[in-house]
Amino acid sequence: MMMGAKMRIGGFWRRFDRGLNVSVGLVRAAPPGAGQSVNPAWAALVVAVRIDNLDLIRIAFGSAAEVEVSSAVWRALQNRLASSSAVVGECIEKSQDEFLFVVRAATEVGAGSHDFLRRQVGSWLLELGCQPISGPGSEMHVALSWSSVDAGPRCDDKDVLHHLVIEARNLLPHMRDGSVPQFSRPEWVRRDMMVAAGHYAALALGELQFAWEPVRAIDDDALLYMRAVAAVPGVVGEVIDREAGYRALERLRLVAAFDQSQVWLAIDHVARGGGRAVCVPVSAISFRRSAWWDGVMSRLAAQRALAERLLIAIDCNQFALSPGSAAELADQLRRLGCKIVLHGFGGGQVAFAGLLALRPDVIMLDPFLIRLAGRGGRDFALFRQVVALASVLAPVVAAEGLDTAAHAELALDAGVAWACGGYAGLPTWRGPEAHAGRPARIPPFQWSDVAAEWVG
């Protein structure tokens, strides 16, 4: 039989949990005293949680594993509800892949108490998504979706609660392309799960960190922003990327919790980055309107100076965007002051419909294009046309993969002003504040002096 969720929380989770509770504004309320009941008029949520990858777990590890993983998730949720001093909760309904419960504030937390509860639940589920569930000879992770509905004093009424449950369940995001890709084979899933578990383990132990790559002007010292690159240090401090692990997370639909952890860490870097803009990548699978983003937007709404220096880059290397949901999230983040970057234009799974719906602030050209342009003649003419199209679709166009002066000359000749790669500066472990270059002052990157002083 399999064990329940392991409580192997390394340096990452201690840092992240501490940062979430301080920065996002969670409070640790004292539990109600003996005989004290929770005020039913205080905030309550009806929460729906779904495990999205049980089918894959069954394919790879068998039906018994599917049952035991479901039980492990349920036990973890029950333990969180039982041990929290900030909220109290109770189960409403439970199936193998879906759990519904009510949470209430254990003390008065003011007008924003529904947001408080959502942040609390979100922190539980993020921790659960980042931790392994252990079985004989294997470690597995669960892909979780969740939603919540504000509940008032009448949620104790059975009819009212019934309708709230339906509403919460209907708000769960649709499964993308089904939960089981047609090409999945048990040995492939097991291999990817082993790689994914190693990726999360490196995160938990603090080995997986941000290296920083500048995106700067090709012909002067203007710095547009710093790209966060998830990597591990080599023996002598080299920056070793872990892209293979990340791609395994995507294929298994396990990437949402990882991407959320990276976004929160990037926000912390913005807060102490000396006025530098920071860009963090997320998968196209993660970039859609869902409850996972509620806590992020709540913090950025309260601290607009941080939002103005945060860029979210959408990685379409393996999967395309869901245009409607992605556009909704992009619009909400942009209203808070964030910038949206589309990675890999000209390659990957960048669909034109998604691009038009997204309306990115920055388009980053796929590195293949600069190599194509180097052939000259018709290939360079094609590169110039791609650049012209990108310039129509976004205010800022940058080229990835500029490693030589010859690459830089090709990009400038085609009308590209911004770049990353060996010519602009390789990723290093120095934080954003340590990189030289004046902040770019072009639309839409007009950082205000007030914001610079606030962040710095």
Written description of the protein model:
This protein has helices at 11-24, 54-61, 63-83, 113-130, 158-170, 186-204, 243-251, 255-271, 294-302, 304-307, 323-336, 352-358, 367-373, 377-393, 405-414, 449-455; strands at 44-51, 87-94, 98-105, 133-135, 138-140, 144-151, 209-217, 223-233, 239-241, 278-283, 310-315, 339-345, 362-365, 396-400, 418-420. With 456 residues, the chain is an alpha/beta fold. Helix 1 crosses helix 8 (255-271), helix 4 (113-130) packs across helix 8 and helix 13 (367-373) packs antiparallel against helix 14 (377-393). The longest helix has 21 residues, at 63-83. The model is unreliable at 1-36 and 448-456 (pLDDT under 50).
Which whole number gives the mean pLDDT?
82
Number of helices: 16
- Shape verdict: globular
Count of DSSP strands = 15
Provide the structure class: alpha/beta
What gyration radius follows from the Cα positions, in whole Å?
Answer: 23 Å
Largest sheet: 8 strands, mixed, barrel
Helix fraction bin = 40-55%
Low-confidence stretches: 1-36, 448-456
Q: N- to C-terminal separation?
A: 52 Å
What is the beta-strand fraction?
15-25%
Strand order of the largest sheet: 7-8-10-11-12-13-14-15
